[in-house]
Specification:
It is a single chain. This protein is of the alpha+beta class. Helices cover 42% and strands 25% of the residues. The strands form 2 sheets. A 5-stranded antiparallel β-sheet has the order 4-3-5-6-7, with helices on one face. A two-stranded antiparallel ribbon has the order 1-2. The termini are far apart.
């Protein structure tokens, strides 16, 4: 009986020491690692979501810029075809086929009027980047204090297949936030028709 009381007293003293003494080092490390894991996972998910959103934003902008150039070339081609029918032009790809030929391509400024258009400008080894107007929010090749270089470069290439058909290819190239080069291309056939 004496031994039993001694054991109970020993257990009671050790239990009090443990309760009053706090956590052990192992218990503290386990708690910290669980806490870090619960904080890190949502932050990684949020970071990934932000980068995916930025990529989607850039891809949508690239698609709009490419489609803008396609629409400009199509409108210019239709105007040339109509002028050719009326006897006022010498070709349905006038001011487009020579400067925009493969492989270098050209740039077109879609902000200018089709009636008195600025002709397409042939690119050298690379095309110049599109500029962004800080006041109007437009992309083009303007000059002045309101225009700054954007991250996007647009190249238009027209390759004749025969006298009445050509391939129009518009490529947008940009670098994302971690400076990885991305691109978007629209490719379509165009024909010598007014419609």
């Amino acid at each position: 009986m004496y031994q039993s009381n001694k054991n109970e007293e020993f257990i009671h003293q050790n239990f009090q020491k443990k309760v009053l003494g706090g956590f052990t080092l192992v218990e503290t490390l386990v708690a910290i690692s669980i806490l870090l894991g619960s904080i890190t996972a949502p932050m990684l998910i949020a970071s990934r979501g932000i980068s995916i959103t930025a990529l989607a934003r850039d891809q949508v902008m690239a698609a709009y810029l490419a489609q803008d150039a396609v629409e400009y070339v199509m409108a210019k081609k239709k105007q040339n075809s109509l002028n050719e029918i009326l006897g006022n032009s010498t070709g349905w790809l006038l001011n487009l086929d020579t400067p925009c030929g493969a492989p270098n391509g050209c740039i077109v400024d879609t902000l200018y009027d089709l009636v008195q258009p600025t002709p397409a400008t042939a690119c050298a080894a690379t095309c110049s980047p599109l500029k962004f107007n800080n006041v109007t929010g437009a992309y083009g090749y303007g000059s002045g204090a309101d225009w700054t270089d954007s991250r996007f470069t647009r190249k238009v290439v027209i390759s004749s297949l025969n006298t009445h058909e050509a391939v129009l290819e518009v490529t947008i190239v940009w670098k994302n936030s971690v400076l990885v080069q991305k691109s978007f291309t629209i490719k379509t056939n165009i024909f010598d028709t007014v419609l």
